Amino acid sequence: MSDIIQLLPDHVANQIAAGEVVQRPASVVKELLENAIDAGSDSIKLIIKDAGKTLVQVIDNGKGMSTTDARLSFERHATSKIKTAEDLFQLNTKGFRGEALASIAAIAHVELKTKQENDDVGNAIIIEGSNVVSQDVVVTPKGTSVSVKNLFFNIPARRNFLKSNVVELRHVIDEFHRVALAHPDISFALYNNGNEAFNLPISNYRQRIVNIFGNKTNEKLVPVEEDTEVLKISGFVGKPEFAKKSRGEQYFFVNNRFIKSAYLNHAISSAFDGLLKTGTHASYFLNLTVNPLTIDINIHPTKTEIKFDDEHTLYALLRSAVKHSLGQFNIAPVLDFDR
Ligand code: ADP
Ligand code: MG
């Protein structure tokens, strides 16, 4: 008899986990922005170079980390956000898996600077491919800055798999939009290769949409509001005459988290039935608030899929709320001679 099973060393386990969490620069953007939000920041800056391939940096003004936590934050399954399995069903943070920083540090050069409000100095940590290169005391403002350089430097296959800068930048901006739309109460800026691409002040939801998609968007938005025991809906749908051939501006947020749901998307398109020209898609920006006990977010590491206890009820409520809004604002069918 001979034993052949071994426990994988941490850096190998981290690299495997990274394969699930980090697909491209935009995944790093998502994780770092979410951490900044969870830290209670009200001002968040995203700096990228070469579409994030050489640098993704997020600077926040949140609560920062202690010396010990700064080091621990890079350990796998190290999180301040949940303590028990029950906490998974009453999440009020974006993160909870404690995997993002460990995964990112396994496949990039990471520099963290962080300081808590009442401390005079903060901490700077450099980690490359899971190896701590240095940890020093540093003078830095309150909050946290995480720089992620040379993504996939130690996994050439993944690095080569990245798309052109144009495509990767598109993904980064999509991610930035999703996070910024979910949090109009936080100011966000995006700098791309040294140029300011977005500067979004704290505002209401309508203004945030307009600041992102342009002034012309304002007249296109029809408010949707509904408040029932199981579901609160708040947001906007685009007037049918502005519907586009592409599916671009379609956003669902459930409890402030961007999610993808073909099923709920169908609820919207069925509410628009007869109002859209063939081949066009309605835009929508809808926030759904549900009891956290009735959803499960822990389906996929990227947390963009969600399991609802009662999908059918949500579908019906959503469809009727949107229909009601379109009716109330006298939205008439678009004359469509192609039908
Ligand atoms: P998770 O977000 O799932 O907890 P992460 O690996 O993303 O896991 O982060 C690990 C921990 O590091 C967090 O739980 C949090 O305590 C701390 N942390 C990460 N980013 C920040 C930040 N920007 N500000 C303050 N604390 C942070
Ligand atoms: Mg996180």
From TrEMBL:
<dbReference type="GO" id="GO:0005524">
    <property type="term" value="F:ATP binding"/>
</dbReference>
<keyword id="KW-0234">DNA repair</keyword>
<protein>
    <recommendedName>
        <fullName>DNA mismatch repair protein MutL</fullName>
    </recommendedName>
</protein>
<dbReference type="GO" id="GO:0006298">
    <property type="term" value="P:mismatch repair"/>
</dbReference>
<comment type="similarity">
    <text>Belongs to the DNA mismatch repair MutL/HexB family.</text>
</comment>
<dbReference type="GO" id="GO:0140664">
    <property type="term" value="F:ATP-dependent DNA damage sensor activity"/>
</dbReference>
<comment type="function">
    <text>This protein is involved in the repair of mismatches in DNA. It is required for dam-dependent methyl-directed DNA mismatch repair. May act as a 'molecular matchmaker', a protein that promotes the formation of a stable complex between two or more DNA-binding proteins in an ATP-dependent manner without itself being part of a final effector complex.</text>
</comment>
<dbReference type="GO" id="GO:0016887">
    <property type="term" value="F:ATP hydrolysis activity"/>
</dbReference>
<dbReference type="GO" id="GO:0032300">
    <property type="term" value="C:mismatch repair complex"/>
</dbReference>
<keyword id="KW-0227">DNA damage</keyword>
<feature type="domain" description="DNA mismatch repair protein S5">
    <location>
        <begin position="209"/>
        <end position="327"/>
    </location>
</feature>
<dbReference type="GO" id="GO:0030983">
    <property type="term" value="F:mismatched DNA binding"/>
</dbReference>
